[in-house]
Amino acid sequence: MSANKSVSVAQAVIHHDAALRVIQAAVAKAEALGIRVCVAVVDSAGTVRRARSRIPREPCGRARPDHRQVGTVPPGQRQSRRSRQGSGGCGEADGSRGVSVTRWPLIAVILALPTLLPLAAALGSFTRLDAELWSHLSDYVLPQVLPTTLLLLLFVSVGVSLLGTALALLVDLFEFPGRRVFSWALLLPMAMPAYVLATVFVGALDYAGGVATFLRERGVLLPDLRNLAGASLVLIAALYPYVYLVVRSSLAGQGARVLEAARTLGLSPTQAVLRVALPLSAPAILGGTLLAAMETLADFGAVSAFNVDTLASAIYKAWFALFSVDAALQLAGVLLVLVLVLLVLQARVQNARRVATASGPPAQRRRLQPFGAALAVLACSLVVALCFVAPLIQLGIWSARHLGDFDGRLLQSGINALLLGLLAAALVVTIALLLAYAARRSPGRVVRAAARTATLGYALPGALLAVGLYAPLAALFGRLNETLGWTLMLQGGLALMLMAYAVRFTAVAHAPVMAGLSRIRPSLDEASRLAGLTGLAQLRRVHLPLLRPGLAAAAALVFVDVMKEMPITLMTRPFGWDTLAVRIFELTSEGQWQRAALPALAIVAVGLVPVWWLVRNLDSGGREHGTAA
Predict the structure, then answer these.
(1) Domain boundaries, the chain
(2) What per-residue confidence (pLDDT) applies to 264?
(3) What pLDDT was estimated at residue 462?
(4) Region (Disordered): which ranges (predicted)?
(5) Which long-range contacts (CB under 8 A, 24 or more apart) does 435-438 make?
């Protein structure tokens, strides 16, 4: 073999520092034979170090590009980096075997574009207002639905912040009988969508309901619940876990030093909680409240059950009762303004949470006296019973009475829901994986901005997404029909449903996928590149096997959310394509509350899956306190 020829004959990844001497000896022997050897050594710290033989006539310092291929490159002519990468040296492989690094920002931008479509359509509706239509909306619709929406936001926000914060303080800072059980039982209402909870309360407590009839026969008259107050109470019961969860996380991060410092200043335990723990948890409280407020704006089924007209329900009525897409789009623009206000507040709260973060060892819980412990047990028991256990029992009783309703139509609705959940989970997880991998391969402003945009859809109400995606796509396909003669049926298509699901739930899948990728050390990427794996091949053969737990969690979360989603499915489904959520809406719209129990019970059973996953991770990653007398 000629001495002026460098031949790459071996690439290896060694995981022991003790083998470095053996490698160096092998490199020396190869150099004596005129053979070039490229070796990657991964030390105990996970750092990749390269060792290779010196090419003949190569300087002892850093080699110039014209020394890379001695004898094959004319003097003074330098090779480009891309041409060097596939030459068998230690550089990265080129893009011919995968996706080039420069293409990942483009992929991220393309994946973020569907989220911008409903935003542009809703905000753009203000630039082409129909004077007559807007006059009707501003005179008759907005004066009714806008104050109702704002009042509902106010009542629910105050309710969830008070209830969720009080329960989090009680469970996290005090010791009482059953505390460990209540710590996860208080999360169970997350498994029951607000429209299912509304179905139970209206069906049981309405004038013709079983509970109302039982009490009326004994001289007790219940007030009418089908109003703003009833809708607010049900939404508080369904959404308080958002505040409870984030406040518990905030309290867990404060540590013992904060409360001990307050005690050294002469504050009593109660004063330490009120004057120290609560102010430090204020950003978390506000953050959880804003999440609940966004869910309130997006709610459609619960307010419909209580005959409360909000912006979300007005969008549905404008489209399907007035058959006016333009009116629905202009109402969606008003709703989007409220959503953007909440998003701005959420961004400021996140910055405040970074500043207000404290740390330290876990604080000891204070053991409550018998009377206080009894009150704590009673309060937690009432919340769990009223928000989950009693509604679940009522659903079980109604389902047993109407087992005969389990017919082919209900079975087909369940199959449709499963199919939609599986298709949406596969699509959304793929989008989230590509976004996360783009951020890993090409971190930069473009990819970060695209990821933020793509995950913005979770804050957008389903009714807004449905009309915001339908209107511009219908206009586009209408133009194609006029100019090219293409006839495309958009309304009632599965493609539109899946696109809306992807926009709304990408954020749900993005978080666990990003968490899984962050646990894969960059040294593994470099080692796999030395083995010739680049681009999508590296993703398929190296990262995907390690990401299976995160991908499974993301798929499960998206699947459950799609199963529970009502407005998107109701407004974009093909004709006759019913799901469990749509079946519940149809039955409750006809006042058949008890017959809606079977599909509602199935949705609750599916909803328990993410709650179980959340509780398991909360227990494994949570803290264990001591107990102070």
Answers:
(1) 147-306+358-399
(2) 74
(3) 93
(4) 53-97
(5) 435/108, 435/111, 435/506, 435/510, 436/510, 436/513, 436/514, 436/517, 437/104, 437/517, 437/539, 437/543, 438/104, 438/105, 438/107, 438/108
Whether 580 contacts 414, CB under 8 Å: yes
Q: Compute the C-alpha angle 87/82/1, nearest 5°.
A: 15
Residue 266: how many other CB atoms lie within 10 Å: 7
pLDDT tens sequence across 2-57: 444 333 333 444 444 445 555 666 666 665 655 555 555 555 444 545 544 444 45
d(CA 251, CA 256): 10
Neighbours of 512 (CB within 10 A): 23
Nearest in space to 546 (alpha carbons), one of 450, 622, 448, 437 = 437
**Backbone phi, psi, residue 613, to 5°:** -60, -40
**Burial (0-12, 13-18, 19+ Cβ within 10 Å), 491:** middle
147-306+358-399 is classed in which CATH architecture? Orthogonal Bundle (1.10)
- Bridge partner residues of 366 (DSSP): 174, 628
* Whole-number pLDDT of residue 486: 61
pTM score: 0.79
What DSSP string runs through 461-484? -HHHHHHHHHHHHHHHHHHHHHHH
Task: Tell me what pLDDT residue 377 has.
Answer: 96
Answer yes or no: are the C-beta atoms of 123 and 338 closer than 8 Å: no
Provide the token pair at 453: 């945009």
DSSP 622: S
Least confident interval from 115-124, 186-195, 383-392, 524-533: 524-533
Rounded to 10 degrees, the C-alpha dihedral 118/124/129/134 comes to 40
Give the 3-state secondary structure of residue 63. coil
Tell me the torsion sign for CA atoms 424, 425, 429, 432: positive
| Rg of the chain in Å (alpha carbons) | 30
Q: Taking each helix axis from N to C terminus, what angle separates 597-621 and 544-564, rounded to the nearest 10 degrees?
A: 140
Confidence of residue 619 (pLDDT cuts 50, 70, 90): low
Do 287 and 353 form a contact (C-beta atoms < 8 A)? yes
The Cα–Cα gap between 316 and 293 comes to 20
Return the closest-CA partner of residue 235 out of 176, 303, 173, 162: 303
CA distance to 322, 367, 387, per residue, from 193 (Å): 28, 35, 11
Residue 462 CA to its chain's centroid (Å): 15
Least trusted range by pLDDT, from 38-47, 200-209, 226-235, 436-445:
38-47
Cα–Cα distance list, 363 to 203, 212, 434, 598 (Å): 45, 46, 41, 45
User: What is the band of 298 on the pLDDT scale with cuts at 50, 70, 90?
Assistant: very high
Higher pLDDT, 161 or 574: 161
Averaged pLDDT for residues 545-560: 89
